[in-house]
Amino acid sequence: MQATLTHEAAAFKPWNGTSLVLLGDSLTEGWRGTCQGKQLHKFDGVTRVADRMFKHPLLLFGICNDITAHVRWRLVHGGELTPAMAADPRLVFSLLIGTNDLRKGGTPTEVAGNVYAIADYILERAAGRLLVNAILPHSLPTHRAAASSPETELRLEPTVLPTNALLVGHVDELRRRFGMRVGYVDCGASFVNSSCGLLRLDRMPDGCHPNAAGYEALGSCLVPALEHLRLA
Fold first, then answer.
1. Alpha-carbon span 54 to 20, nearest angstrom
2. What pLDDT, in 10s, does the model give residues 14-63?
3. What is the reported pTM?
4. Where are the domains of the chain?
5. Locate the SGNH hydrolase-type esterase domain: which residues (predicted)?
6. In the CATH hierarchy, which top-level class contains the domain 2-11+18-231?
7. Cβ-count burial 6-28 (b if 16+ within 10 Å, e if not)
8. What is the pLDDT of residues 52-92, one digit of tens each?
């Protein structure tokens, strides 16, 4: 999958309009309908959602199972931030990463700090804009693997909220340094039942990855935020 992303980045050419670059893990690769380049049934219909919702040329730089360290490596060493991309002031990046760090035991402070470091790297080197995404709600891996009831499966990973609270502070610091070139969006409410605070399995059936309806909800939050940042 890395070779595919490197090839797509190398083929990028600036034009007289906006292009979008979505960076992340399986939540980003899922827009392709794939995981590690292989089509998965759980992503059926997602590519049609992407084609309908995104109106600008789109680069999807996501790899299943990646953590923050992988994304940083991909930018620094993997060719996903080419000179042509870095020089394009119309390019709008979206960064959604950290879910797998939390699932592997990363603390909110560690994970939020790693996301901040990636955002700082992009903004220091690229002329475009960056939208930092809050980590989406998801259920605990142990609950997904051994759920005895839907209610168990719906319980949320408790480290998401404190991580996102730290991210808000980090984005405030980035705004002080980079001004209107950086934004923040939290699309998590689209996946939580407001009446009980549990995960919506109709949009995230496996407790971690959106289905087509989930990507529709995610896009309805993400696309306007990208457009707002583009015009800021």
1. 9
2. 999 999 999 999 999 999 999 999 999 999 999 999 999 999 999 999 99
3. 0.94
4. 2-11+18-231
5. 22-217
6. alpha beta
7. beebeebeeeeebbbbbbbbbbb
8. 999 999 999 999 999 999 999 999 999 999 999 999 999 99
